[in-house]
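batch_manifest entry 22 of 60
target: MFS transporter
source organism: [Kitasatospora] papulosa
requested by: lab member K.T.
priority: normal
notes from requester: please return tokens only, no post-processing; we will run our own comparison against the previous entry in this batch. if the run fails, retry once and flag.
--- input ---
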Amino acid sequence: MQRSRHRAAFGTMIVLVEQLMLTLDGTIVNVALPNIGTGLDPSSLSWIVNAYTLASVLQSDFVS
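--- output ---
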């Protein structure tokens, strides 16, 4: 019984850390958008955010 609790807690911790990393990655991209978009059309910035988010989510799904 005790071992299954530890496994459940460890699994929950892994999921929470993964969510934290995805949130931090998204925040970093949003903070960097003004510098990224200096030479781009303003409408392309949403494509950058969407592409980065999609790539991050797909990568995290394949890893875990």
